[in-house]
Fold this protein.
Amino acid sequence: MSTLEQQLQALKRLGLTLNEGVTIDDLLHSFSREEYEKRPFDLLLFVFGVEIEREPWGRPFCSRVWNFDLECITGTGSYERIVRRCCEVAGHSRDHMKELSDFVDLRTGVAWLKYTRPDGVARHWKPKVQDDWADPKIVAAILGDLETKDRFFYFKDNGQAMVLYFLTPAAAAELNTLSGAALKRVL
């Protein structure tokens, strides 16, 4: 059995820590200690990707993990939010991609996303509009623009959502050993 504290220490060794000011009490606000320890790492790997369920609102447990619900396109600004949050998961500032802008009109089916990578490569994507679902090809392109030669995006399945992590292959392998192979490579 792995205590909650032991699980947190293991994640810390892999570069996944609670954000500054976030405590075990915040973790225990939504789920009991027994729930975290019943199936070690299963619940904690999910909770690291969500926001704390008490005031002050809007605080993620861990900025380096994101429970990305693909049913998130509500209009203009939706793809910008995806890019900014993926930048955070990758360990960059939310403004890592320059000249970031988008347009989405769900009624007419017109959408575009523009940004310039830090290396100067300009991107202009035309996402396919499918109700409120993010275009998987555009999401893959965004993630591909953020991956490096030694760090990649991995995910834990969460139904219509995916919990995203940005890890080295060694860290992902160790986390899979700890979690019973919960993670898969996105791309």
Remarks:
- The first helix runs from residue 4 to 13.
- The first strand starts at residue 65 and ends at 69.
- Residues 74 and 87 are 20 Å apart (CA to CA).
- The chain has a mean pLDDT of 97.
